[in-house]
Amino acid sequence: MAGEIRTRFAPSPTGYMHIGNLRTALYEYLIAKRNNGKFILRIEDTDQERFVEGATDVIYKTLELAGLRHDEGPDIGGPCGPYIQSERKGSYMEYAKKLVDTGAAYYCFCSKERLAAVKEEIEKNGGTYRYDRHCLGLSKEEIDRKLAAGEPFVIRQKMPDTGSTSFEDAVYGTITVDNSELEDQVLIKSDGLPTYNFANVVDDHLMQITHVVRGNEYLSSTPKYNLLYQAFGWDIPTYIHVSTIIKPDGRKMSKRTGDPSFEDLLSQGYLVEAVINYVALLGWSPGTTQEIFSLKELEQAFDIHGISKSPAVFDINKLNWMNGEYIRSMTTEQFHNVASPYYSDALKSSGIDTFKISKLMQPRTEVLTAIPATVDFFESLPEYDIAMYEHKKMKTDTANSLTGLKAVMPVLEGVAVWDNDTLYAALTGLAQSLGVKNSQILWPIRTALSGKDVTPGGATELAEILGKDESIRRIKIGIDKLTRAV
RNA sequence: GGCCCAUUGGUCAAGUGGUUAAGACACCGCCCUUUCACGGCGAUAACAGGGGUUCGAGUCCCCUAUGGGUCACCA
Fold it and tell me: What is the ipTM, given to two decimal places?
């Protein structure tokens, strides 16, 4: 383990994996892989009040779906277990007491009521509340007496009275904060469990984490962590703080405002690979113009240097494009596999060759969920307005559409092989012999076949898929409609 | 409010004192074309503002503005 790069993903189980979390996990995974290191999963569940049933399963499932395999974790074990903080609670108190012994921490018996009162008083006068160190001056005897009497207590970190604390961040550089800004934060809560701030440091050390990746909301508490590392005499990890992912309106992505989680995106028709690729590039640049990266390629290319400091807007447009790129790079068979669930049962049992539909759909699909509404007309001809036959650029109107469709009938009846090429040759031949533009024949047919103004493929492609009988039936319907109107 | 951080086109972003300030998405136009897409070509569009330092500043320093974070026995 010595000398090895070790990163960790340390979510608290809330039951919702938002995109920012996913990106953090991804970066941690990539840093580990890039350096032949280990990627560790640790569950931070020290907040009993926020416990959510089944939430850890969401985490396992997401990592697995995303392909971010961890090397150590609650489900697979490892040399630094247990990997669930609530199962490690015994050791935190021990470490906190070590700090008490060296004077880097102290017992505090202040009630929440007293703290609240002090805070209210200070804020009433426009001041900034910070714990007033009421218990710092307690004598040894007094402390022992209170402890023996079973009084509830917390353990607080003692911040230096003077000077300042600096730390290095791989993204933001050197950051210095005046020690007077630092509060004597709680390390051990009155329920005996550690706070996140403390458990995090202890566990990162015990698990020999070398690179800590987290959201930059932790930037301001990092000096306190450094002080803890120093008090213990432990090595300080490389900090990598990443910016937030925001929405076009500038607000943070959140579950509350209905923003999609990783799983939501998948169910909205995005491919895992595309989401991973997109998220990797949200806040990181490879320094080249390459944009399409498989996870394997990211493992090779990822470099901390390319992480950006400023927040990134989650742009669904670009994700759409990227999803389309992934779809287009598939083989037809692969696309057919992912598209098939979006074809209705009725369509699949209609005798229509859905593989041919997939062929047409592949270059036209960005998001899988758009498929049903695009192919519905294959299943049954929708009601449509004959105004659709009028098209300026195609030089069609209801009158010449009607004559066109009538002229088309015998050609279709007589065609030898019912496929796109043959049909196209026959119909353009017809147009030529009639002295009209191809579009004047093909546009009315496409309209009659689909009843839609936009279709995935042209008249003859649709005709091939619909088959001779159905195509002719639909064209007759078109002729009827037009005849009644003219 | 104190402290910390950020700011290159609408969006993602390259850029580490000397560039005509890349590339991509979106948008717009043209080509291809049996609609739509795909593909190809092209156009519009940016260093937040002001002071310095320097022969020279998107790059370094200061101020201002705007945005974000943080100030819990939450993580």
Answer: 0.96
